[in-house]
Design a protein that fits this description.
single chain, 282 residues, alpha/beta, eight-stranded mixed sheet, six-stranded mixed sheet, 5 helices, 18 strands
């Protein structure tokens, strides 16, 4: 049976929601509450970098000066942040009975094994999105492949887990900039992806002049691209683009989340700031 409920979660960064696991759980469940009573199968998606503030605020604020005394601090914090994100999102997928994209965080990729528990094969940080089924199983750990200038210190990923076949259809996942590269879109389309999830975090004012064409605003260029991204595709029919807003590490993010079909909006946030829950029933 194909997806009957789609939810794109626009989320504002609230530091207080990341200071404890319980606060984060309450925040996640609150943002997913519009799913209550909706028909299954359900598909929900959080924005890019939604989990990053866990690295900065969980169990005490991150202080750069502490690196002199504890050089391994970023890895220890990343492990805790990943574990909390994984645990809370798996619970949320089960509670709301949804296929769930947990947004992304900056972390080494982690694996689980009976004797070793949670461990990482690499110390290199990536921009990772986690995708769960309604039983809370992690189906895919999806790395961002194309990096913006502030992300150049991260390890880029390789194509692979970006296509997930679920009982409700094939889902493609491209993190923000990845979704603007035609070769990635064409590859997912050719492999049979029907729904594209593009979690995003745009560190620019929504109404600023767009650098490649100052006659247009950032938001106009973004929305025009989203409306046209599915035109002429073989299989891709729906695009969910949940966006983050607020401040992280001195950067300010803005963006209107949307759900799109070829050439049109199916749901669009009213504002580029604040929370919004975009529901669509295909």
């Amino acid at each position: 049976m194909p997806f009957r409920t789609l939810l794109a979660v626009q989320a504002q960064v609230l530091p207080e929601a990341y200071r404890t696991e319980e606060a984060f759980r309450e925040r996640v469940h609150g943002l997913l509450s519009p799913l209550k009573g909706t028909p299954a199968p359900r598909l929900a998606a959080f924005p890019e970098l939604f989990g990053l503030p866990l690295l900065l605020h969980l169990e005490g604020e991150f202080a750069w000066g502490e690196l002199l005394k504890n050089p391994l601090l970023p890895w220890r914090r990343a492990r805790r942040a990943y574990a909390v994100l994984h645990r809370v999102m798996a619970e949320a997928a089960r509670r709301f009975g949804a296929y769930l994209l947990a947004g992304s965080l900056l972390s080494p990729p982690y694996e689980e094994e009976l004797a070793r528990g949670l461990f990482s094969r690499s110390p290199l940080f990536q921009n990772l999105a986690l995708f769960y089924n309604p039983e809370g199983r992690l189906l895919a750990q999806v790395p961002k492949m194309e990096r913006t200038p502030p992300e150049r210190w991260l390890k880029g990923g390789r194509f692979g887990p970006h296509l997930v076949e679920t009982q409700a259809g094939r889902v493609g996942i491209l993190i923000c900039l990845d979704g603007f590269f035609e070769r990635h879109l064409a590859r997912l389309d050719a492999l049979g992806a029907e729904v594209l999830l593009q979690p995003s975090a745009n560190p620019a004012p929504w109404d600023r002049p767009w650098p490649p064409d100052p006659e247009r605003t950032e938001g106009e260029a973004w929305l025009t691209s989203a409306r046209g991204r599915l035109w002429g595709r073989e299989n891709l029919r729906l695009l969910l683009n949940p966006m983050l807003n607020g401040r992280i590490l001195g950067l300010t993010f803005e963006g209107r989340s949307g759900i799109y079909a070829p050439g049109k909006d199916l749901a669009l946030a009213q504002s580029p700031v604040g929370d919004a829950a975009l529901l669509h029933f295909p």
